[in-house]
Amino acid sequence: MEHKNRYPICGIFVALLFSSFLNAQEFDIVIKDGRLIDTKNAIDKVMDIAIKDGQIASVESTISKNRAKTVINAKGLFVSPGLIAVSYTHLTLPTTPYV
Questions:
Q1: What is the pTM of this model?
Q2: Does domain 6-79 have CATH number 2.30.40.10?
Q3: How far is the C-alpha of 41 from the C-alpha of 34, rounded, in Å?
């Protein structure tokens, strides 16, 4: 009983399985080359931001476009996580004059 032919097939299967992991996109969105202003973490420079499931997953100087389903080019734009939520307020104006 010869088992020589079984090993090359196993090797091919493992290689195909591993390559599918390499091609998987780990982020939903990558925002590239935007000027990140993050006062909480004292960052004010051009960075890439990765988003996964609605949350910031990574902030790096360079994130490969291949790691995301969608890429947004923010070159020349400002990016500031949480700025909208911080500045959001309710303003109620009086409906009757004060006496």
A1: 0.61
A2: yes
A3: 16
